[in-house]
Amino acid sequence: MILIIGGEGAGKRTFVRSLGYRGEDMADGVLDGRPVIFHTERLVFADPDSADQLFDSLREKQVVICNEVGSGVIPVDRRERLGRERTGRLCVLLAREASAVVRLVCGIPSIIKGSI
Amino acid sequence: MRLLILLTGGSGCGKSSYAELLCTHLPGPRYYIAAMQPFGDGSEEKIARHRAMRCDKGFETLERYTDLDSLSLPGGGTALLECICNLTANEMFDKDGNMTDPREKVLAGVENLCRRCGHVVVVTNDVGSDGGGYDPATSAYVEVLGKINAELVRRADAVYELVCGIPLVRKGELLL
Fold first, then answer.
1. Residues of chain A contacting B83 with CB distance shorter than 8 Å
2. Among candidates B82, B116, B114, B86, which has minimal Cα distance to B102?
3. Which one in B16, B93, B117, B171 has a CA-CA gap of 20 to 30 Å to A91?
């Protein structure tokens, strides 16, 4: 599994296309049979308390794309706060499992773990 | 040898785990300086989680919310300060919400830890990277914390940004 992270609009899906995946290979925040999932953070925010349960399904994907949502002022709202934190923790677990982790900044990929 | 290491990164990125791991490779005794006050905004959950994480790592926990510049420690060893964000808020706002510039107190606090312990690991957060639009007090906090972080980076021997649990070197060299 390859983990792709970065901010909203950072070029994550464009990068994944460069690996040979097509739009129809990518599931938008739902767990189904497609090899790539993006907007993984939306799955977490939908139910932050159950975020840990997503790990087993996500590790089976070829590519997991997730927005980096942990920066900025910590929200007062519990759900918002937990969503950010659990997204981060899930990404720590996924990164540990991943053969490669790529971070996109302004469309520029940096491989921060492993190789592709 | 004096060593100051600063760790930054977003929420849930693995800063605390990595900070503790770093400290277990640095000389004892190990002091955990807890600046988070145990009320509001999920702090109880966070404190309980952090306590459980470090319970078998040989830290003595010192709860100290302000005035780290006058903290007395026996000398030597390693201090882990968690975190600059809380310390800055505590030094900046009193219980009635009155504001004072926290820069001098926060920096003098870290300096005191360095002087007494020799090895210091400090955790901070990147609070400036969002859409902003906060009330004046919060905006002032975000700005001053950014400046404190920049000054700490200037003084630090090593700075790592934690991303998905992976330390990215922003200054100095990777210790582990």
1. none
2. B86
3. B171
Q: Which of B46, B83, B53 is nearest to B65 (CA)?
A: B83
- Strands B59-63 vs B3-8: parallel, antiparallel or unpaired: unpaired
Tell me if residue A95 falls in helix, strand or coil: helix
pTM beyond 0.90: the answer is yes
The CATH architecture one would assign to domain A2-114 is 3-Layer(aba) Sandwich (3.40)
The tokens for B62 are 């010192």
Strand stretches in B89-157, DSSP E? 119-123
What domains does chain B contain, in order, with CATH numbers?
10-171 (3.40.50.300)
Mutate which: B15, B139, B145, B163, vs A, most A CBs within 10 A: B163
Asked whether B46 and B123 are in contact (CB, 8 A), the reply is no
Owner of token pair 């759900």: A79
Q: Are the beta carbons of A113 and B14 separated by less than 8 Å?
A: no
Under an 8 A CB cutoff, do B12 and A76 touch?
no
CB contacts of A3 in chain B (<8 Å) are 164
**Predicted-complex ipTM score:** 0.94
Which of A3, A89, A112 shows the shortest C-beta gap to B168? Answer: A112
Q: Say yes or no: A33 contacts chain B, CB-CB below 8 A.
A: no
A106 reaches B (C-beta below 8 A): no
Name the β-bridge partners of A103: A5, A110
State which amino acid sits at residue A97: E
Q: Which amino acid is it at A6? A: G
Block means of pLDDT (10 residues each) for chain B, 176 residues, are: 93 96 95 88 77 82 96 94 96 93 98 96 94 94 97 98 98 94
